[in-house]
Amino acid sequence: MPKKKVQRSQEEKEKLAARIVASSDGEISIPAAMKTAGINTPSTKNNTIYKRVHRESKRVEKLLAQMEADDSSTNSTPKPRTVAAQREASDFLSLSESTNLTTTTGVASTPLSGIRRMILDKETVATTTTDTPVKRRQTSKPRHNEDSEKRKKQRKETEATKLATIKVQENEILDPKDKNRVSTAEIVRQVNSALGTMLSHKTVRRMYREGQINSSPMKRGPAGSFSKGVWKAMYGAFTTYIQLEQAAYKKQSMLNQLAQKVNLMVNKAGHKKT
Fold it and tell me: Is the pTM of this model over 0.90?
């Protein structure tokens, strides 16, 4: 009596095809494995299904490589399976029909049921031994709270800088022999203690020498090669050029072409680094 054919879902067929590719050591191509797993011909030419099988086969190959590395090293005691792993094992065992698949070269490969059971054991150990926390993307609320804290800190530093420069100016007016006259470091220490900031007395002293009294601190980073007015003029001109190019031409310039045009514009205008 002929054996009843097992009915598998599309997902089960794709996983079976991936395991065929991983266990064949490159002797079976992905379309041939998909056909062997029972996927119809139009689906074997579907690029999305092809990529899914390819990704799954790479994952299985990594598991097999890890298993070989562990077998060559010390023998570890098996750990109990989790409930999720047992459920996954029952799903995969439905695929493990005892059939020996034959490669395109006519050489019989290893039974896939045994390979699947080995992979399941490896996956079970991996799920039970990993203690590293999973990285998750921030939601909008924590990100908003984080940005809000940064803005509060910046406003507090700005307020502290203004207050420190004013106090330094008032301190410099005093007579050198006045008992109320203190050093800049002492003034900054008092401001930091009152507002909970971490200003540097060197920064406050530099701002006082430059005449930046009761003003916000400058943005961090190196100074630009162009003045603010020149930068705004070039920014506006080049933005207008890009908008006109997008409106008038079907083909737009690539990023490297735009960079070359920016350099030509800067050199033509005579703006060079000193």
Answer: no
